[in-house]
Design brief:
The structure is a homotetramer. Chain A is α+β, with helices and mostly antiparallel strands and about 300 residues long. Helix content of chain A is about 50%, strand content about 10%. Chain A has 14 helices and 11 strands. In chain A, about 60% of the residues are buried.
């Protein structure tokens, strides 16, 4: 299939769309990003790369980073991880708070904020320097050195992230954090601030399309069985309250972030990433979702 | 792949399991079914059939029937269907009630009871004789005549189904039913009582593995695009509160019923059904889920 | 104190208010009542009566009738009543549904609809003819014969009361109704349709201001201790979601109905009733509440 | 009435009760208090004092202190206070969290923790030194100098009060705190740690039984109208989830704390306080509630 041609077509169609969504403004530093940025990258399991737009420009990965910390946590904890965090879709974010209360501080899945805080806690307990460990993990995944925290973004989120402070303290109250909330939050805010480009993202997630084996660095990242399971959680929980709609419209396991990035996995074939900072109602990139939908329509590709 | 050999192996392993779950007892008539029943059937898109156990014995499809009514409703309503029912996982059944209230009577998806009632309402409004229409639809799907309501089961559920009466009246109060609750409930209780065997189920659902085209009867049931979407809803919403766990352990779009049946779809390849009346905590067949998990482990088959 | 003078003053002030609230329209028959009706009546424990406006005109008591059925149920069940219904304020009506689910079908208090349905069930189980028994009870209380159901209102509510049908079936599903939901609902819809005038209401509730003893008929209605408790429930639960605001502004145990009536108790001194059909946001009579607030300000009367 | 005789009788009856409840242990420092402490004090509006037990021994007032901060906040803000905090009973504590979310960070009343945090915020914004201001206010109320924070208790609560940290950050996220959560929490934890004896409590709250005028110091504390309203909020919201039960059994406006203290108001007559550290399921003093119930039974006193 001529992926480059299809990316070009998608780009042309998306360029014409007036409504671009709204750049996240609850983190002041994120609101400064220009809304006309757009990039896509597709990388096949034999490491061929197709791109369009600003595919080398780094953006704030935000929740996409939860994919990497979850992979680390699964490798650390194995099945016991699922005693501290569920693997079921959360329903609305409104429900997720009620759920935390009614299910004794066990978050419904690792991709809602409360779940990601528990995952952060696991990494903090495992490594002497948690923040270094996540950078090192991603750098090795994508075989690139310039993966870093954006300290301005991390600071901006720490100064305004009252809701995340609330969540961490709730979970601690239920004894589902081993570390102090402030340490878990410091790790979490930094993790979310990691900046990556679309090209880097496709490299770092290629193992998910390749049964856990990273073809770029010739290293096994996680087992084949765990890879399938990571993909299943991406599909059912990876895109905020819109997992059902995403599966319906795109049909690929995906992870999105409020920085406007999305990465999607077609098992055995490729990963595709897209970046456009304007968000829809659910916090997913508006044009990013549209671009993925166009892409899967044109290619007739879907896991279903 | 030697599917028969694998079914045999799964059967041997499952036979040895002591804990069989608990037969549904909230519908008195269902509680009479013997818990040692077990059957599996696998049917490939080129209509080869592999079976084990009592694969010709009919059981109460219960919620599996929602798959057929949803297909009918999508064909009737097209995209406007999604204004009356969502397509997002519901979280816990506890939340689904709160959700109905906070989202003005629009059920979160067509597979929770409230959503299935809205789907029933659509069919009732379309056909002069709703109950005949669903029987006719399924008979044509599986090319078999002896698909019928189990009137004893329907009556048993009508006499004890206070919660479903409550749901239908709530939805009516929100103006999301066009027909009277009692008529919608009569259709719904009958639909759930439809009896089918594992073999019949694989025939009736084969179009879902074959892009909407029924190879047995050489008829298009629904479009390729709608078929993908049906499968995506099965994956994210098809197995009660356990959709995430099901995707994680089985990795196939599936629909279960409290009669102990489950049907799962491997797109482009086959459908597989299993029946064992004992249920787990979530209302899914305990040994049925186990059997599907063993099957996908042994075959290494998954959409992920 | 010159009660008549104060009623006159209140009437003059209230007449000048433009905003009269909205007559209940969810029961079609109720929406036909003219919004310029206004009446007040005050009856002292030595049976002196003061009135203003259309104090002899009957209106639909609606939820005020729950006060009479609760008195009957307390006399039937004694303390065991509180195993089937709570005596705590319900928070919002939204919460009351969640609460019914999380507390296994035990309504939070006897004045929310779910609680009144349980109370109705108790009366139905006790008397051969439940509907006659409530009419007889109220007729004896006020020493007047023309207390009747308004069959048009009862029918109107039965035809449109889907939410109450839902509630009754939920409670039945939790095994907290002994009778069939349809019978409980028939009793409930009739009870709510009872028509009374302001004067009749003050007579029928005078025992609440007089330690359980009806001075008009020289009969004990319930014990002194139960009378205090009835008043405490009126104060904490008697006025829908606005019990706190009512206690804050009026400071008397009160019961309101969506027919626009309110009755309030000043223990040891008097009962006061008011009728004005237009309702506020919470379903309480807008001018009725205003009139009671003016009355307690002018008289400096309050239980606090 | 011979109050001393009745206190003696109540004491004798309560002494014989084996089940004493459980001393609060979620604040480590509180758990060290011996469970056999018991005290009562009654002070009439003409400042006669009746006591039994350890009525001069100070204990941790905890939530009782919210009564004093609410009085301060009403005097500071007047009616605008009710835009930032409601005055309705909260239903269950479980619901109060949902409510905070669904009502945009406006706590349902000033006596649940979230509401008390908003009240604390108001005091912090008004006074240069918030912590000194509350001590000064209470010292003047009871005309006694030795009212102080228990720094050990405040520190103990600060170290383990993750849920309160969560609440403060949630409310801040909804923009309903002007100060930083950590400052509000520091004030709040100190306020709760204030130690008072039963005798001191009756002196400090005597204005509530005397229309806002403190007869001991001959000072007006708040207006007559605000006093009635404070009492109404005490009755509907003062005793955690058990306000309805408290009104039913005791029939007086009351405020309780997890230190085991309760203070109750009989308008125009007296205030009565009781201390027994063992708590019931709702967090109210088990023997304290029992003692008040016996007292009101014996005296036949009630606002109803």
């Amino acid at each position: 299939m001529d992926y480059q041609k299809i990316l070009n077509e998608v780009y042309e169609e998306v360029k014409g769309i007036k409504e671009k969504g709204k750049v996240a403004d609850y983190i002041p530093e994120l609101s400064l990003v220009a809304n006309d940025n757009f990039a896509m990258a597709l990388r096949t399991v034999d490491n061929r790369l197709y791109t369009i737009g600003e595919s080398k420009k780094q953006f704030s990965t935000q929740s996409i980073s939860k994919l990497f910390t979850l992979t680390m946590a699964i490798n650390i904890e194995g099945k016991t991880l699922w005693k501290r965090v569920g693997k079921e879709p959360a329903g609305t974010s409104f429900n997720s708070l009620i759920q935390l209360e009614s299910e004794n501080g066990v978050p419904r899945n690792p991709f809602i904020n409360s779940g990601a805080l528990v995952v952060s806690d696991i990494i903090l307990s495992e490594y002497e320097n948690g923040k270094e460990s996540i950078l090192k993990f991603i750098r090795e995944l994508c075989n690139c050195e310039n993966i870093n925290f954006d300290e301005k973004v991390a600071k901006s989120e720490a100064e305004t992230g009252y809701r995340n402070v609330a969540l961490a303290n709730f979970i601690k109250d239920f004894n589902n954090l081993d570390n102090e909330p402030k340490d878990v939050l410091d790790f979490y805010f930094h993790q979310c601030s990691i900046a990556m480009s679309c090209e880097e993202l496709t490299a770092a997630t290629l193992f998910l399309a390749n049964q856990g084996y990273n073809p770029i660095t010739a290293k096994r990242i996680t087992s084949e069985s765990r890879t399938k399971r990571l993909n299943s959680i991406l599909l059912t929980c990876g895109t905020y309250d819109a997992a059902g709609d995403f599966a319906f419209r795109v049909g690929l396991p995906s992870k999105s972030g409020v920085g406007g990035g999305i990465v999607a996995i077609m098992p055995h074939q490729f990963v595709i990433s897209v970046w456009s900072p304007g968000l829809d109602y659910h916090g997913n990139s508006l044009l990013g979702l549209k671009a993925l939908e166009l892409f899967t329509e044109k290619t007739d590709i879907s896991i279903f």
